[in-house]
């Protein structure tokens, strides 16, 4: 494939993407026609570790305090070592001598493992698997995500014509192994709508639809990609993705839930960073330590506001205790470990991790890194005392006074065990205590983006993959630990991570690689063999259909009705909200933005109040803003249908859409129908649909002639005559129906 | 209601494998590809997160009506009379209480304050109750009073989270969400978990949220009046329109769109529109207390009583979990000043509704499998705050249950002589939650959800079923 689809970086890319040596190695593998041998042996990391983790490690794992009988099964040395009694849990090569096996198989209730009360019994097949593994010598291995990141050679495949870039080799290999075929390429309108929503979060414009009509028009497609990926709208959509990961909010949450006047600066920094394709390593470093790395730089100071946009606890009584400081350190340690390392360190707040090799020293060591700084809060305006709900402005400043962080028993501030040394997770390369006098956050920032860090790049590319395909190669985007998901395509994940690092952490390059792959450009997943063998679309025989996110859905309605205000940046817009939605909110300082045009801005600019979600975002699965959100749910509940059918907001959009179509078609239904389909579905209307729509509109028009529509169902500047009014009302109902279609709500 | 085979709740795997169809033709799918579903087998059929599911073991209760007293009722002024406290009124609290952490006061600097309420033993059971609850006194023999509730969260917001979700920080799933996850929804035109409140709550609506569970399990707030559920009625401007015609047209397009795509989620969304359509008729009817007899409406009274009456109508229609929050905002059970009068006002507001609910459920044969729960997020100090108020105290407080397989006429557990700390048979919130789940046939240790690499439970890693309070 190499010669027909040269992997050439796009115009915005800073660094060529693949070193020539890699390309040669890759080419020669293809030439040799090598096939991949399937491992005959039991794979510890894939098969045994999850089993031990689920059934054994609660009592025989890393957590020393919970460990029973001093037996630890997650480390080979301990598991194969004779206990005081002389018994050995695992005798490599000899399942029959291994006490682990006999204790699993025994019928003696006192001896049986796991104990019955744990409800963790193993199946016979699982026990056989353990026996086989022990027979094979009980080899242990590093957990995949903690192992060194190396670029694997792309595999060879049979159908080389399909392949557009190395991503496709990894995907196709798995498909072929499973007897599946890719779905034929998507047509132009499907691809364009998918790519447009995927990059900018917005539907394509009618002009773009006209310009890109041939899916094989590679030059046209790449030109579109370049335009999309360099737009502010791309920055807005991808900033919104990242805001989920970093639990973004415009208010403190908890009881008082006062507004933050600083959060939006961080949000704008995100938008600008994505829009200008800031290298991802720099993107990460600036958020962790921008103030230290670039002292005096206003932009870098905005980046580090990451540490201040989380929930902030400030209610009666709390301010007197050490609790508040502890809440903040907990929030930043949990958020940064989840966001950048994809690990759940939160468990180690109370005890050593039961399944992953993190310790309390690691966790409080991370807190101690942040404790060199302090979030300085200035309350805006006059006031004070209990119940103070004035807005606040926060910045990160150096801590004055004692910055010692105590390791806490059960995570409780009143149960300190001893001081924690500022340190990086000990089991990862270059981990351990920091040298004194190092600026701690800067050290963390460079450690996170060091080429030797095995997690950061893997976690980042997985998120990017998830934001395009709906699920990551690892479906637990925030948990790359032992209990997390195993990657569907581990070699692809590593290849992409290596590619990201070697390209200079060039996200734009990664985007082009994914968006131009044959994998991405397939038609959408459908029925047939693939649906049977791979119903959850992990193998990617076809593009997995996705429901629009809440923000995409609202923005798409505004764009269709022609009212979307593309003004960018600035303080959040506060939309008016129905009284019932505010009824449960205690701090009611809700002052809607007056300027009507502001209310039509993109969803990313709407205020994110922690104690109450905007009803539309709530019902369509917005993130909870309390902790890092690894991915959105897409539930199907009747409340969504009620919102789309009955809310005043949707009715207004239907009316605006109808009046737009009316003026663009001079009131001719057939002309309006022709215009509506590209606007809503990015494709031309079919004859059948044309007939249906015409019939529907005509029937409703007749009905409205008999029941006078409300004045609001008209957009005529002067009072419309009854016939016109009936027609306007019918068009509004028609547009309301179109907004309620699955084709509008889903991206193929 | 349902006729489809009921699956067992042995685990997510089975759950997912079994709950294909559900709710007749309904199949509300969730694209359950998030953390919680990862270890599940691939699912060939649509997953209906609300399909009815069988419990772990036979249930005693079909529904729970949870009357939540926002702000913290005072145990020594309601169900836990303390003669010794009255005698010691004005004295400094004994040293053994000095270490207790309170939100606003320092025990050492406060005085013990007796109760100005009068108490009597009621019914055959002799349950003690203050005279500001005259009606409730008449149904004392239906109650199971626990006097030894306790936890250690002394602020409202985290304590309300604690009571509802088993954790004092936001992010976990509420009891109602867990019940819905465990058992599904047994009706096809109403939500399984309904919440009523008349005032803003300190923690906000997240306390009836789904937390990390799928959003389908969150509580739905309903209010009295024309719009019990958000967007339940077509907008007034569309009066004279034909919603069915609009829906039929959209559904024609949806069915054609779905036919070529073989995607169960699309089918589920088509079905969810039909459920939404049915709810528009069913929900207003369910909350319309105008359909009750004059006698019944008089029995329940106004305000809180009306909410209790709505709750009974919902139970009759198969709704599983109903929560009514009494209080909220500034005018609630949170009597930092003028404790006696504040508590008395609150008791008068709830006395009639609670009593009517128990009597009415009993009379209709519904009390046996309807669990009524009355509790606040904590109790109050036997010591003063300011001149005549009481501070929050989670260390020993009272609540009661009725019906749903609980032991009627029982007083369980005890606080110390001043009513500060639970000393006999303490019951933690985790124990109460474990017990409530138990009544629904759910083992709180087995009702789990995988999130961030851990199996979460309503009861965290604690909780034991309080068998002594069960019939």
SSE layout:
The complex is a heterodimer of chains A (748) and B (471).
Chain A lengths: L19 H13 L11 H12 L1 H4 L15 H4 L19 H7 L18 H12 L30 H12 L10 H13 L5 H6 L6 H12 L2 H14 L17 H13 L4 H14 L4 H6 L19 H19 L18 H11 L2 E7 L12 E7 L6 E4 L7 E5 L2 E2 L7 E2 L6 H9 L7 H14 L20 H13 L4 H9 L13 H5 L12 E2 L2 H11 L18 H4 L32 H5 L18 H9 L1 H18 L3 H13 L5 H20 L15 H18 L2 H4 E2 L1
Antiparallel strand pairs in A: 1-2, 3-4, 5-6, 7-8
Helix pairs in contact in A: 2-6, 8-10, 11-12, 13-17, 15-16, 18-19, 18-20, 26-27, 26-29, 27-28, 28-29
Chain B lengths: L11 H7 L44 E7 L13 H5 L31 E4 L4 E4 L3 H4 L5 E8 L5 H10 L9 H9 L9 E5 L22 E2 L21 H17 L4 H24 L6 H7 L3 H13 L4 E6 L12 H25 L6 E7 L2 E2 L11 E2 L3 E6 L7 E3 L1 E2 L6 E3 L2 E2 H11 L9 E3 L2 E3 L15
Parallel strand pairs in B: 1-7, 1-8, 4-12, 4-15, 5-6, 5-7
Antiparallel strand pairs in B: 2-3, 4-11, 8-11, 9-10, 13-14, 16-17
Helix pairs in contact in B: 6-7, 9-10
Structural features, described:
The complex is a heterodimer of chains A (748) and B (471). Chain A has 30 helices and eight strands. By secondary structure, chain A is mainly α. Among the domains of chain A are: 44-138, no CATH class; 248-448, no CATH class; 546-634, no CATH class; 648-747, no CATH class. In chain A, α8 (188-200) packs parallel to α10, α11 (232-245) crosses α12 (263-275) and α18 packs across α20 (507-515). The longest helix of chain A is centred in the C-terminal third of the chain and has 20 residues, at 687-706. With 471 residues, chain B is of the alpha/beta class. Chain B contains eleven helices and 17 strands. In chain B, strands 1, 4, 5, 6, 7, 8, 11, 12 and 15 form a nine-stranded mixed beta sheet that branches. In chain B, strands 2-3 form a two-stranded antiparallel sheet. In chain B, α9 runs parallel beside α10 (339-363). The model of chain B is unreliable at 1-46 (pLDDT under 50).
């Amino acid at each position: 494939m190499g010669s027909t689809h040269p992997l050439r970086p796009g115009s915005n890319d800073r660094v060529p993407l693949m070193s020539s040596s890699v390309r040669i190695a890759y080419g020669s593998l293809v030439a040799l026609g090598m096939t991949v041998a399937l491992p005959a042996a039991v794979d510890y990391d894939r098969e045994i570790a999850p089993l031990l983790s689920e059934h054994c490690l609660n009592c025989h794992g890393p957590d020393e305090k919970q460990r029973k009988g001093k037996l630890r099964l997650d480390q080979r040395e301990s598991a194969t070592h004779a206990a005081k009694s002389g018994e050995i849990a695992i005798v490599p090569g000899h399942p029959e001598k291994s006490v682990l096996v006999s204790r699993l198989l025994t019928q003696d209730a006192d001896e049986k493992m796991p104990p019955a009360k744990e409800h963790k019994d193993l199946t016979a097949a699982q026990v056989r698997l353990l026996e086989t593994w022990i027979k094979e010598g009980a080899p242990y291995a590093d957990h995949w995500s903690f192992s060194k990141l190396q670029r694997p050679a792309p595999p060879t495949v049979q159908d080389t014509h399909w392949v557009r870039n190395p991503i496709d080799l990894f995907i196709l290999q798995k498909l072929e192994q499973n007897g599946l075929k890719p779905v034929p390429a998507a047509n132009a309108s499907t691809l364009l709508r998918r790519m447009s929503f995927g990059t900018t979060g917005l539907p394509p414009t009618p002009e773009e639809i006209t310009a890109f009509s041939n899916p094989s028009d590679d030059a046209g497609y790449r030109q579109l990609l370049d335009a999309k990926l360099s737009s502010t709208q791309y920055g807005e959509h991808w900033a919104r993705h990242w805001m989920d990961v970093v639990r973004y909010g415009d208010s403190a949450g908890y009881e008082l839930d006062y507004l933050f006047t600083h959060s939006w600066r961080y949000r704008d920094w995100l938008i600008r960073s994505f829009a200008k394709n800031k290298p991802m390593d720099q993107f990460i470093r600036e958020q962790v330590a921008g103030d230290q790395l670039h002292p005096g730089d206003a932009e870098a100071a905005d980046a580090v506001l990451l540490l201040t946009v989380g929930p902030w606890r400030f209610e009666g009584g709390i301010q007197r205790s050490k609790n508040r400081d502890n809440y903040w350190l907990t929030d930043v340690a949990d958020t940064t470990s989840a966001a950048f390392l994809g690990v759940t360190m939160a468990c180690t707040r109370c005890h050593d991790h039961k399944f992953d090799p993190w310790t309390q020293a690691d966790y409080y060591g991370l807190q101690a890194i942040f404790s060199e700084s302090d979030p300085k809060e200035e309350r805006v305006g006059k006031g004070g005392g209990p119940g103070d709900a004035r807005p606040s402005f926060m910045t990160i400043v150096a801590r004055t006074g004692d910055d010692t962080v105590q390791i806490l028993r059960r995570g409780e501030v009143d149960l300190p065990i001893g001081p924690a040394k500022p340190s990086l997770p000990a089991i990862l390369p270059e981990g351990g205590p920091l040298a004194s006098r190092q600026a701690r956050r800067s050290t963390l920032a460079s450690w996170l983006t060091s080429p030797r860090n095995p997690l950061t790049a893997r976690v980042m590319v997985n998120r990017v993959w998830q934001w395009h395909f709906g699920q990551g190669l690892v479906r637990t985007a925030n948990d790359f630990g032992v209990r997390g998901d195993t990657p569907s395509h581990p070699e692809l994940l590593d290849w992409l991570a290596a590619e990201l690092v070697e390209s200079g952490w060039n996200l734009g390059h990664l985007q082009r690689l994914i968006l131009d792959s044959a994998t991405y450009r397939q038609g959408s997943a459908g029925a047939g063999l693939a649906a049977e063998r791979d119903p959850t679309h992990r193998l990617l025989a076809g593009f997995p259909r996705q429901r629009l996110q809440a923000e995409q859905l609202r923005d798409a309605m505004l764009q269709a009705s022609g009212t979307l205000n593309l003004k960018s940046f600035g303080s959040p817009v506060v939309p008016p909200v129905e009284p019932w939605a505010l009824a449960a909110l205690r701090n009611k300082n809700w002052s809607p933005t007056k300027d009507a045009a502001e209310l039509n801005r993109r969803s990313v600019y709407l205020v994110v109040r922690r104690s109450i979600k905007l009803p539309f975002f709530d019902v369509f699965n917005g993130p909870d803003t309390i902790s890092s959100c690894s991915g959105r749910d897409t539930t199907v509940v009747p409340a969504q249908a009620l919102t789309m059918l009955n809310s005043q907001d949707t009715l207004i959009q239907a009316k605006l859409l109808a009046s737009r179509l009316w003026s663009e078609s001079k009131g001719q239904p057939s002309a309006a129908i022709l215009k509506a389909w590209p606007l809503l579905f990015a494709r031309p209307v079919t004859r059948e649909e044309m007939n249906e729509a015409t019939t529907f509109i005509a029937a409703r028009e007749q009905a409205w002639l008999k029941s006078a529509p409300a004045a609001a169902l008209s957009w005529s500047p002067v009072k419309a005559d009854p016939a016109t009014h009936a027609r306007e009302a019918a068009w509004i109902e028609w547009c309301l129906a179109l907004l309620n279609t699955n084709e509008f709500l889903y991206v193929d | 209601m349902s006729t489809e085979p009921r699956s067992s709740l042995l685990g997510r795997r089975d759950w997912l494998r079994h709950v294909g169809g559900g709710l007749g033709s309904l199949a509300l799918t969730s694209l359950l590809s998030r953390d919680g579903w990862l270890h599940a087998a691939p699912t060939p059929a649509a997953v209906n997160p609300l399909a009815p599911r069988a419990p772990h073991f036979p249930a005693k209760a079909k529904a729970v009506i949870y009357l939540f007293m926002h702000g913290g009722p005072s145990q020594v002024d309601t169900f836990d009379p303390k003669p010794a406290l009255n005698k010691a009124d004005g004295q400094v609290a004994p040293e053994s209480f000095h270490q207790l952490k309170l939100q606003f006061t320092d025990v050492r600097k406060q005085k013990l304050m007796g109760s100005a309420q009068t108490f009597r033993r009621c019914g055959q059971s002799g349950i003690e109750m203050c005279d500001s609850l005259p009606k409730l006194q008449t149904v004392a023999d239906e109650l199971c009073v626990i006097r030894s509730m306790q936890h250690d969260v002394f602020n409202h917001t985290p304590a309300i989270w604690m009571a509802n979700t088993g954790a004092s920080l936001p992010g976990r799933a509420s009891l109602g969400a867990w019940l819905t996850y465990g058992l599904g929804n047994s009706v096809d035109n109403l939500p399984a978990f309904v919440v009523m409140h008349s005032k803003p709550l300190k923690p906000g609506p997240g306390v009836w949220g789904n937390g990390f569970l799928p959003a389908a399990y969150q509580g739905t707030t309903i209010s009295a009046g024309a719009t019990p559920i958000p967007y339940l009625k077509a907008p007034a401007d569309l009066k004279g329109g034909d919603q069915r015609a609009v829906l039929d047209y959209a559904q024609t397009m949806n069915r054609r769109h779905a036919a070529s795509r073989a995607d169960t989620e699309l089918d589920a969304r088509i079905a969810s529109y039909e459920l939404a359509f049915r709810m528009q008729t069913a929900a207003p009817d369910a909350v319309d207390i105008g359909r009750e007899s004059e006698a019944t409406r008089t029995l329940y009274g106004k305000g809180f009583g009306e909410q209790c009456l709505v709750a009974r109508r919902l139970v009759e229609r198969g709704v599983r979990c109903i929560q009514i929050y009494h209080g909220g905002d500034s005018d609630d059970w949170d009597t930092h000043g003028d404790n006696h009068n504040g508590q008395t006002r609150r008791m008068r507001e709830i006395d009639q509704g609670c009593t009517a609910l128990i009597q009415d459920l009993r009379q209709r044969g519904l009390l046996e499998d309807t669990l009524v729960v009355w509790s606040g997020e904590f109790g109050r100090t036997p010591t003063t705050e300011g001149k005549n108020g009481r501070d929050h105290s989670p260390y020993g407080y009272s609540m009661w249950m009725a019906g749903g397989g609980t032991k009627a006429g029982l007083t369980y557990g005890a606080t110390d002589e001043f009513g500060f700390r639970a000393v006999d048979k303490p019951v933690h919130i985790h124990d109460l939650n474990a017990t409530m789940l138990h009544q629904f046939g759910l083992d709180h240790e087995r009702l789990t959800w995988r999130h961030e690499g851990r199996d979460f439970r309503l009861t965290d890693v604690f909780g034991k079923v309080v068998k002594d309070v069960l019939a």
